[in-house]
Amino acid sequence: MYFLSGWPKRLLCAPRSPAEAPLHVQSDPRRAFFAVLAPARLSIWYSRPTVLIVTYKEPAKSSTQFGSYKQAEWRPDSTMIAVSTANGYILFFHITSSRGDKYLYEPVYPKGSPQMKGIPHFKEEHCAPALNLEMKKILDLQAPIMSLQSVLEDLLVATSDGLLHLIHWEGMTNGRKAINLSTVPFSVDLQSSRVGSFLGFADVHIKDMEYCATLDGFAVVFNDGKVGFITPVSSRFTAEQLHGVWPQDVIDGTCVAVNNKYRLMAFGCASGSVQVYTIDNTTGAMLLSHKLELTAKQYPDIWNKTGAVKIIRWSPDNSAVIVTWEYGGLSLWSVFGAQLICTLGGDFAYRSDGTKKDPLKINSMSWGAEGYHLWVISGFGSQHNEIESDLRSIVKQPSILLFQFIKSVLTVNPCMSNQEQVLLQGEDRLYLNCGDASQTQNPKSSSACTDHTPSREKSPFADGGLESQGLSTLLGHRHWHVVQISSTYLESNWPIRFSAIDELGQNIAVAGKFGFAHYSLLTKKWKLFGNITQEQNMIVTGGLAWWNDFMVLACYNLSDRQEELRIYLRTSNLDNAFAHVTKAPAETLLLSVFRDMVVVFRLDCSICLYSIERKFDGSNTTASVQVLQEVSMSRYIPHPFLVVSITLTSVSTENGITLKMPQQARDAESIMLNLAGQLIMMQRDRSGPQIREKDSNPNQRKLLPFCPPVVLAQSVENVWTTCRANKQKRHLLEALWLSCGGAGMKVWLPLFPRDHRKPHSFLSQRIMLPFHINIYPLAVLFEDALVLGAVNDTLLYDSLYTRNSAREQLEVLFPFCVVERTSQIYLHHILRQLLVRNLGEQALLLAQSCAALPYFPHVLELMLHEVLEEEATSREPIPDPLLPTVAKFITEFPLFLQTVVHCARKTEYALWNYLFAAVGNPKDLFEECLMAQDLDTAASYLIILQNMEVPAVSRQHATLLFNTALEQGKWDLCRHMIRFLKAIGSGESETPPSTPTTQEPSSSGGFEFFRNRSISLSQSAENVPPGKFSLQKTLSMPSGPSGKRWSKDSDCAENMYIDMMLWRHARRLLEDVRLKDLGCFAAQLGFELISWLCKERTRAARVDNFVVALKRLHKDFLWPLPIIPASSISSPFKNGKCRTVGEQLLKSQSADPFLTSEMDAGISNIQRSQSWLSNIGPTHRDTDIASSPGPQMQDAFLSPLSHKGDECSIGSATDLTESSSMVDGDWTMVDENFSTLSLTQSELEHISMELASKGPHKSQVQLRYLLHIFMEAGCLDWCVVISLILRESSVVSQILSIAQSSEMDGEMLQNIKTGLHAVDRWASTDCPGYKPFLNIIKPQLQKLSEITEEQVQPDTFQPITVGKTPEQSSPRAEESRGSSSRASISHSETGSNSVVSRNEEDTTGADEEEPFQDGAYDCSVS
């Protein structure tokens, strides 16, 4: 439809005196010239360029005689203007071109530019012609003139003495008498007695009138507010031959405008509404079609305060009407009353600070060419205080404004309605919604044709390009794809009259005054006629359309004076030599393409069907056209101009089930004609004998005759159908979609019998369903059940200007207008309409076919919500409520539970009882959710239960949900449940729980509860989905928010209750050896694992079966069982390459070759970590250097192993996957180190073997973290199990050192001893890979058994704070603790987490060296 664009322009015509201020504007029939009247002058403006050509000034003497100018009317050939004056004179002006070949304004081009040469009509088109105005005749009618109207070769004038004068354009009355209105009979319709009542009053006269060519009569408004329609009964125009009809209910008419295409008369009323009438064909009475009025709902403060309607103007293509009121403001409506724009609300009416503006008052308006502009004479009221008096001189005086519009292509080229794109055309640009063509098909690859073709077949456009474009490109985003029309083409062919886009949305064609041009969105290039004479020799008359790669257009050939149908190939040059031309007998008014057929409607009211096919003529591809069938419609169509659109469709009243030949179901079954808003369908007549001969000509059966037409619907603006077929969505694809203006949309839906049963005889096969949508529909996406549209949006810029700057005014008075894309779902309306009509089975079929759409849950929710709101808030009782039906319908879908709860949460509490009475008890629904494992929905039901039930019930259900959530590891939900249970406990049972102020841990940052410890850095969660936990380093007992969290109401029984549940869950996890889940659980819920483990050390936290625990951890952490490499028998490390490290080391380890490689890795790692840390600061450097070389040489057994957890193991695959930023540095390091060692292939095999026996890096981090937790809690048996997996002999020595302290629990040591023996036995039989490691720790194991035997006082053991244990055992642990905390300080100063955590790992690698020898186990890695 029509949309405002940008700001209005103001034309420069500053009047120097009130006599020069413009008051009326009237365009000529071609809308190229505009006559602007001031009280004593007549000016003529040209439309493009918008310049003043000539002004006639009335001398003062004659001006007093004539009075001021009032109205102007053009002669149909634009050679004369008649002007009426206040004192009853009509002045006739002749317009002549002056000065021969001279022009007022001429474009100047640089020398040699192509525009200069040989364009016919070039001068007239580009330059404003120089014209002369001279007054030829003066006619005195001796009474004030109320209205002027040009009728064919005559001028009709109504005067205030009740007379109608018919005047010849030469200024002669031709001896005809003026008609006295009081002698014209008026009646309610033409059928009643010939002698109607006369108007009867002496002083009745016509206030406003307009001639309607298609109704052959005048719509008139009388001075007493009555309205009517006067029509000549015969061709002679005399009083005896006139007859009037009038509606009895309009008594406050003010003005009138006539729509010729739709045969509508719009009467403005004093109440501010516009009543639109049409004439009943049979009786001749005036019938009310619809009203245009502002509603109190949309404009609560203005709707009845607009004043009377002042001016109504229909757009040039008759598809929209613009209305203005006495007190100002503009509104734009579609032909049948859908409101498009109104300037009385929103940014038009209010400034950005909220104050109200004065609405723009309009004295006169006229549409420009093709409706791209609206010429407005504004008259600002003089209501302003002194401060702004200086402004009034510039701004508040009357001026000419040009409003700019963009319109939908459907208004002029209705054949575009069988496509899914929205295309808008502006004066010099096009707006498309099909996104960038390069998204759908990459232009770079399309040049490599061979590669691209196969992918094109599988593209969304499969099936010969008849598939839907897909939601992503059509809905994409809110912005348009704007294509500037070629300026070369526009210069000589402005204005653009037609435009069309092809089915794939990749090519556009436009046709202006002459010729046409087309544009490819892939190459971003325009293609114009090479020969300008050919372009200027054709005028496109009936629109243009795409058929595959061809443009089909109906045009008039100027040189041959011949109507033609032409087909041009897009890929060849634009030239008539490549066109296929078919001569046509009469002018084509409309054209449309369906499959391989073209249907045209001609001026002689005939419809012609052509078949079109591609022909390969040697190297050239052409299309050939054959006439299939002609149908004359002159019996049914009173005037060819009334046909708005013509479409071939496959829609028929039969559904193809009862058709005798199934393949005919999707053929061109019927012709749809929109005749002045009436949708008429003509089907093929299948009642005759059906010929089925295999060898018969395939065109034979297409020539079935058509049945007489049937009217399907009234007030139709646009029709959409598709020729695509889709078995799954037959309802939507075989339907017919109608847009009916203010009445919303209608769909003519086919009804299918289920399972191909025989249809009931009493069921119709189609049904017309009306529904309302909130946007103006411009395209229908059939499969996606969406309507696409566009909507005007406004932006205010008034804050940029100061109040008293004179330049500002237009930008302040008007917001900047933009057009935005919009879309709306309509499926719920249709389902609801079907349910209302007891067609639940059809509704179910339709819904099931659309259940895969992404917004289908939203559709169900909308339907439930709308019905609920209507019925629950209705004042009267509803005899047959729909809600139970809708509820039953929704239960057919798996989304039932979600739909109900989402609807309830978005509805006010007062309506819940009504809703749940229909859908079922919320307690039962909650339990269904739990059974279906849909915990999030269950949580939503919990909020409803909490509002509807007593606290005990909601507590009971919450506990159920909490336990289930714990089981399933839904941590987010668990946190909400803890909060919820506390809220219930603390008596907030009336309101839903509020978010506590203490910070909740976010689902991605795991251990915020430990953030007051010395190191708390989250692992960089690059590739961890937010639902997973991520671990953090912790060093001492938690004393952070977790303490605060429970202390808020720690005495509350509720906390105890929650804690009991948490403890129970932790116990269950430990009993099932689910350590990974335990870590997640503690991290996500801030569970104080260490203190709980201390309590449970001898109960739940014991390891009952070491072997089972070991196996389970291998499985949970995806850790491979160790294997013995094949070449271990002859160890390659016996050669002297590593002598530097010490001979005895190699000898002692000859049975265990991988340790040495691990040690080498250790060396390289230390060097690497030094270089990595060089940028962090001196602290690390010092600790590194202090701790690396010494221990490395002294105690090669233990230290290299610590690097197992280091992320930078030798070029391991995890390096690459973790983060690419490290890769380069890492590999160069590795290379240097390798070159110094110069390993042989067999050694490399060992290293790779060793890497293969390690699990993923993340598991390693998690295991180290758990090891640290258990160590702090004193659960040494678990520490042993974990160190076995990590193969950390150092930990065993640590446990040994702890065990040497006298306070160790003998029972635990005993447990460890028996456990290790069990593992040893298992390793001997099932997993020999563990043997080498067990051999290393054998000496420790022997020491352990000695201790257990000699230990005397197991009972005196008391739980100790773990931090003290290492310190008692070694003074040197102090230093290491200090160094590591120093490291952490500098980390916290370095902002970025990901880098820091990585560096941190390296530091700890270095830091750990020292504590390991001394038996203290320190920091863990994350």
Automatic annotation (TrEMBL):
Entry keyword annotation includes Repeat: yes
Pfam families, sorted: Beta-prop_RIC1_2nd (PF25440), RIC1 (PF07064)
Protein name, UniProt field: Guanine nucleotide exchange factor subunit RIC1
SUPFAM superfamilies: YVTN repeat-like/Quinoprotein amine dehydrogenase
GO CC annotation: cytosol; Golgi membrane; Ric1-Rgp1 guanyl-nucleotide exchange factor complex
GO-annotated molecular function: guanyl-nucleotide exchange factor activity; small GTPase binding
Skewed-composition ranges (Polar residues): 437-452
UniProt-annotated location(s): Cytoplasm, Cytosol; Membrane
Region (Disordered): 437-463, 986-1005, 1020-1048, 1352-1422
Family: Belongs to the RIC1 family.
Compositional bias (Low complexity): 1378-1389
UniProt subunit comment: Forms a complex with RGP1; the interaction enhances RAB6A GTPase activity. Interacts (via central domain) with RGP1. Interacts with RAB6A; the interaction is direct with a preference for RAB6A-GDP. Interacts (via C-terminus domain) with RAB33B; the interaction is direct with a preference for RAB33B-GTP. Interacts with GJA1.
Tagged with keyword Transmembrane helix: no
Keywords: Cytoplasm, Guanine-nucleotide releasing factor, Membrane, Phosphoprotein, Repeat, WD repeat
Organism per entry: Mesocricetus auratus (Golden hamster)
Record's function text: The RIC1-RGP1 complex acts as a guanine nucleotide exchange factor (GEF), which activates RAB6A by exchanging bound GDP for free GTP, and may thereby be required for efficient fusion of endosome-derived vesicles with the Golgi compartment. The RIC1-RGP1 complex participates in the recycling of mannose-6-phosphate receptors. Required for phosphorylation and localization of GJA1. Is a regulator of procollagen transport and secretion, and is required for correct cartilage morphogenesis and development of the craniofacial skeleton.
Main localization (coarse): cytoplasm
Domain RIC1 C-terminal alpha solenoid region intervals: 828-986
Taxonomic lineage of the native organism: Eukaryota, Metazoa, Chordata, Craniata, Vertebrata
Compositional bias per record (Acidic residues), positions renumbered to this chain: 1402-1412
